[in-house]
Specification:
The complex is a heterodimer of chains A (about 300) and B (about 375). Chain A has about 300 residues and is mainly α. Chain A is built from 14 helices and 2 strands; from the N terminus they run αααααααααααααββα. Classes of the chains: A mainly alpha (about 300), B alpha+beta (about 375).
Chain lengths: ~300, ~375
Amino acid sequence: MAGGGASEVFFKGASQRRDRRWALVASYACLTVFVIFFLFPPYYMLVTSLKTNAEIAALNTNPWIIEQGMTGAHYVHLLTETAFLTFFKNTVIVTVCVVAITMVVSVLAAYALSRLKFWGSGLLATGIFLTYLVPDSLLFIPLFKIVGALGLLNSYWSLVLVYPTLTVPFCTWIMIGYFASIPRELDEAALIDGANHMQMLLKVFIPVALPGLIAATIFAFTVSWAAFIYPMAYLYSTDQLVLTVGTVTTLIRGDVFHWGGLMAGALLAAAPPVILYAFLMDYYIAGLTSGATKG
Amino acid sequence: MAGVVLEKLVKTFDRTEAVCGIDLDIADAEFVVLVGPSGCGKSTTLRMIAGLEEVTSGAVYIGGALVNDVPPKDRDIAMVFQNYALYPHMSVYENMSFGLRLRKYPKAEIRRRVAAAAEILSMTDLLDRKPRQLSGGQRQRVAMGRAIVRDPQVFLFDEPLSNLDAQLRAQMRTEIKKLHQKLRTTTVYVTHDQIEAMTLADRVVVMKDGVIEQVGTPHELYHHPKTRFVAGFIGAPAMNFIACRLARNGDNLEIRLADSLTLAMPTDRAARYEAHAERDLVLGLRPEHITEGGPGNGGGSGAALPVTLDVVEPLGRETMVYFTLAGTELCGRVSAETAARAGDSLTLSADMTHMHLIDPDTGAVL
């Protein structure tokens, strides 16, 4: 009987190992499909941006590989003959300003809404989230009037003013969630230790909620880097355009698409977010709060 | 250092009264433990002393000064929380020095104080660690260190040992007691664990439903409880309560249990209970006063209780026996060497010199 029990355990162990192997095979198979699916567009951009115009236009070549020799001509053209660097500079200015404004406003708002229990704070928090639900394709028309009245039409500063309407509500909500997860005893300990609200926010809340802060920063960055409708509506002269709209208006002339340049521009424009993600993901670690209280 | 005085202290949440007008005078250097079941208002009282809860009415004095409207940081108190409340992103050193740094103490002074506190708590080699690298006991020690470095007038402890396992809890209890003996800082300590209360306190405050049931030394509470609640709450296993009738038997009084079992009253107690003769009361008797009869067993003026054991619980040093008498489940204590098994019939002896009589209507111990 004892021997039977042992072999039962053995078979059970073996079947668990088999289950685990199948689970791994299935996960890798699914992951491979996803990776191919999501990496295909950047790969196609890269390949096309390195082809000559003749090869891009030829119908009898294989579109997935470079057959007639690589060229950097599209990149050179993009950087020297177009205002790409101006667009890039404008985008960086707008994005940096928007991220800064968003983080200051939403962190302060989130702290107030999650910790200073004032009359109507719950209602206000919900109200802020509701404003996020209004799509920008609907908002850009009334905002056009406002931007115009402020004399900011055809200036990228209009974007610095307008983008926070998209980013602040969402980031505030992310931060409210993270602040709410900070145990109240931590505030009380800081209060007894002698911290005022500003010190509590800067020295306790922000460091503890750093993963949330990074998530919110990434969101604000992505929104203002990739927005299309607002710059399309408010900007028209080359010196004010940002990457998204600038690349398209410069490289699509009437019905002529400069595919090589478009792909090169898209690839270069996508580089900063990719680098930022890769860099910040290391800091985006969950479980930073472990150890504060009984886990 | 300073004493703490609570005067007619009331705290109301919405419309429920959590603390209903308590008066308490805590002397300088005294260790006072607030104990009671959950929801009795003990934590709320502590939080009002800390300034974390607003006082609805009444007054809190620390060191003679009224502090009702003084913010926590200016009350010169330090608090240790149940779940430690350490700053997760700071090292042990930074955690302990945070309060001093906010108060702009000179660097050298901060270093000296942290080193001294770390020495007392024997955690000098942990100063560079982050809280998540520490065990539960070490985290609680850091929380205590954070309180010590401030050298406050009053220490407040809010169930600091509840998250620790039994062995560590006993060890930390001793450390807290040693700490108080060394620092002599006025301490208010909240717990629901009556053993912690008894072992740590100079005086224990037993609370129930927002009011103080009794204030006294551990010895007073154990031997002279004023209410049935205190009698039942303090001591483990809990005191036995048996419905009885106080009857006259000639000149003396005797206690009649429901099934006509009669226990003689010690003569020196008769005068005290004279006024309650011929009333239905509740007899309170601790398990250690229901023991094996016969000579040499400490039965004293024992009244014989013939019982049939329901459950026998050997604890090593002693054995607890449970039996039913007069329709009530009771607990007694016999020697560890007993041969008694569940189902055995036995005659136990009730030491009536330690009996309590309780008024069933008011719950007061007579």
